[in-house]
## 1
Amino acid sequence: MQIHQNQIVGLNKDLLVEHKENLTQLSKKHDNLEHIIDTISNYNIAIPSWALGAGGTRFGRFGFGGEPSTLEQKLEDIGVINALTKSANAVSLHIPWDIPEDANAIKEKAKHLGLHFDAMNSNTFQDQDNQEYSYKFGSLCHTDKKVRDQAVAHNKAVIDYGIALGSKSLTVWLADGSNFPGQLNFRRAFENTLASLKEIYAHLPADWKLFIEYKPYEPNFYSMVIQDWGTSHMLAKDLGEQAYTLVDLGHHLPNTNIEHIVATLMTRGMLGGFHFNDSKYGDDDLSVGVMKPYQLFLIFNELVFGMENNPANNPIPAWMIDASHNLKDPLEDLIQSIEAIETAYAKALLINQKALEEAQLKNDVVTAQRILQDAFNTDVKTILAEARLRNNGAIDPISAYRSLDVRNVLIKERGMNSTATGL
Ligand code: RM4
Ligand code: MN
Ligand code: MN
């Protein structure tokens, strides 16, 4: 299914007058409104190819019909999200769940839909059919060199797929670790991982980046080889200038100050990628902003500050939504996540940085808090809508999605029982 421009224009018509009135009101209050609208309208977040189907837990998975069963269909679904939000113009591919059999045709299809390929993701956390060695006891860290070699070769192959598609980065997330004390020698596992990563790094084209993702636990529950940002940072530093740390919001122990980690990494230009989701307990992969919107706003405050004050040359991070859709229609869920991300971003852009700095220099804690909370408490719905409108997107994407009856159209096209590859 593809959404056409005139359908969106038609749906926007009824909302236009009220929207413009709201915009006029808002512009009376904020003199940097144009800059914020402009920044948001240029902002895009990649959608991972595994996020278009029903998620699940180890207890079960409940389908919802019309799931994309081919890579082409997944691109079409991202095309739908992008047509409505104009904020999701990239796909993050996962190999081997979504191997592009004909790279040129896939590239063409993506181009036709206005999409391109962001970071590639490798997978050495599951065994595949026809795979010679098992990853049951790790991949890049494995005690057996033959297993490590196989995992290295897989990552190199993922880079090659990415080159064919015009991607410029590889994200490595490892499930490697141990479930029981004594199972693994921590130091040997670390050194093996570093040596394996060095081989992968050597295969990177000069204009590519390597993102190293960390996670404190799960699927291993005693130790993870890359458990935290410090470990990721050490590995990246040892690899070289093309390697960076990737922050996934769900990969922290409860109450970790993630905004502080973001600020520290950006001080050294080391924040390369960012995975959005929200959580209450662990790596819950809930829709962005449902649990801790204030935390997300504080993270964006550091991201905005980091991008505007950037002596260490931190690249613009590769943004991706990394959530799972157990109950909601994934397309609606992703649209809601996009809105939550842009809400936090717009609110962070509203922070009066100069006034904040003055308050900080005077140690005026009360004023500093007021500046942050004034921005956080501002309703930015109109800013987001205007940013979409300027790109010919929908004023209200969820309502538009429902008016167009997208899910039922997809069910008619693909049937009730189609399933997407993924977790
Ligand atoms: C992991 C991690 C990775 C993602 C997989 C599917 O927990 O977040 O980024 O590729 O899940
Ligand atoms: Mn992730
Ligand atoms: Mn995760």
## 2
Amino acid sequence: MGIATDAPDPVQIDVHLRDGTLASLADDVRKGLSRYPRELPPKYFYDARGSELFEQITELPEYYPSQVEQEILDAAGTRIVELVRPAEIVELGPGSARKTTALLQPMIELEPGGRYIPVDVSETAVQDCAARLVATYESLAVHGVVGDFERHLDRIPQQSGRRLITFLGGTIGNLDHPRRSALLSALRALLGPDDRLLVGTDMVKDRERLEAAYNDSAGVTAEFNRNMLRVINDNLEGDLDPEMFDHVAFYNEHARRIEMWLRAREDVSARIAALGMDVDFEAGEEIRTEISCKFTRDMLTREYSAAGLEPVAWYTDADGLFALSLTGPAAATD
Ligand code: AVJ
């Protein structure tokens, strides 16, 4: 661990996406639009416009997960930091990282000179949060990683002390079960015996409340959903008309998840020039753009256990709408 004598730049940002992303977008779009049902990965919502729309979603009265998670973090942030005593926080998918203050502030108060490592697919999100945080916390170093947490976990910088990995917002719910278990196992492999993992999850609850959160009356979620088509147009020379698609979001109770779809209003023909691909939709045909899984405490305990993680602490709101679970590597049994 070095001591900063001649004030090195407190911000470093490594970009691992620029080249890889277009290739993976091209691949994912080609495959996703050729299969049935058509499907596009939700990570492509988050270009600069999509990230901005998501920020607006977090302010919506119907979108309780952000508010409730913030409430839980405000109440428990200091306790979590006192329990873990991290020298650094690695955050997967921080977006604007506004919530993370509830952990960074106590980390720095406990011991100045910590490090924050945001890992996000949005380069602007990483730059903006890095600039804001080093301006706010004089002793904080930020080492941003622009990358995909399902592909670039190996690019996370060498550990400098006890580490807390956070995955907030319920974003883990965007992954289906096989991908969750792969990610949790990969995260488990990054943890030393004293490191901890903090995951935010939206909980199973009544359909009405869930569906309202994804069908806001201001139509922001609909715009966010349609933004996927703009991202394809902008990056792959597409001519998909977002206005020809309706936003559809509902709770699939059997699978315990919200599903978001884009549904063609009429017959639509589009061309994605960079892929040399023509795509035709019949009126009513749909593309799935997101799943957002909802959890129970039991489900989580089982999934953690399967990944070699064991519960350390559990934080929730009075109504049990959202939860934060703190886990650590399960004690070796061999
Ligand atoms: C940021 C992925 C957790 O699934 O609720 C919000 C994204 N999609 N409204 C979620 C989202 C529609 C959000 N996550």
